[in-house]
Amino acid sequence: MMDALFGGVNAAVLTAMNADLSVNIDRMVAHSRWLLANGCSNLAILGTTGEANSLGISERIAVMEGMVARGISPARLLPGTGTTALTDTVLLTRRAAELGCRGALLLPPFYYKNPSDDGLFAYFSEVIQRTGGDIKIYLYHFPQQAVVGFSVALIARLLAAFPGVVKGIKDSSGDYSNSKSYADNFAADGFEVYAGDDSLLRSMMQVGGAGCITAAANVNCMIGARVYATWNLPEGAAAQEMLTATRKAVTSVPLIPGLKALVARLSGDPGWSAIRPPHLPLSPAQQTALFAAFDACGLGLERTV
């Protein structure tokens, strides 16, 4: 799928913090500009990698507003707006729409476990009706983290009830057969399926996927863009091997602190290591191992983040 609204490589952008653990929007914007200049098509902010569930609602709104005020086009932003509270989800999604964002990425309500498809359908129906349909809704399937996920049957119901509004899904399950089932059932009708696992980008493009939304794109977006551009060519296979290797490296340690350590090194800005508990910075041994594994991938990044 080459005409998707957020088609291509989308970084699940890290949220920069100050030493007192407040959000540093200027640092985040500088990194976002680097991402857009180095292969990212768009920016998925305030997701899992962005520590969104460690941020308050007012902080999330301030991030969206601050990025737009500093010149990041809202058309390039896909903010995460799904929360456990229906009214908070509506508030965040409405604000994203008001700012000019074309889409919002919504986790399911994840506090109450094992909700029925009927319950999830009712939740998303309320969100869509209360936000007025002025922004495209992208579903966020991450069962390892949220426990609650999206079945093919539920997506079919949402598409039938809200055609043109429910636009796509990020599948962070890492399960290729699950991602493929979404594409097989819905991609032909314009439903955008995004890999949440870099190692699946080329495979998903081959079955009608729209691209990827990944944490590792914070540091490997240039090779991801090469895979996206050449997925149907022989050189795409070699690019995918490198992309997969970089993902393996960054997931060899706790993901968010590891990515922050890499961005701190690449940018020369140690402030990137600030992270909110319960996450903790990497130990010196973890950091040394991560840097060695990442450098062995041969990506050759300069200190330009």
CATH structural fold name: TIM Barrel
Rg, nearest Å: 18 Å
* CATH-level-2 architecture: Alpha-Beta Barrel
Structural class per helix/strand content? alpha/beta
SS strand fraction: 5-15%
Cα end-to-end separation: 30 Å
Instruction: Give the name of the CATH superfamily.
Output: Aldolase class I
| Mean of residue pLDDT values | 96
Principal-axes geometry comes out as globular
Question: How many discrete domains?
Answer: 1
The biggest sheet amounts to: 7 strands, parallel
Could you tell me the number of beta strands? Answer: 7
Low-confidence parts, pLDDT < 50 over ≥5 residues?
Answer: none
State the CATH class: Alpha Beta
Residues in helix, %:
40-55%
Note the total helix count: 12
SSE succession: EHEHHEHEHHEHEHEHHHH
Strand order of the largest sheet: 2-1-7-6-5-4-3
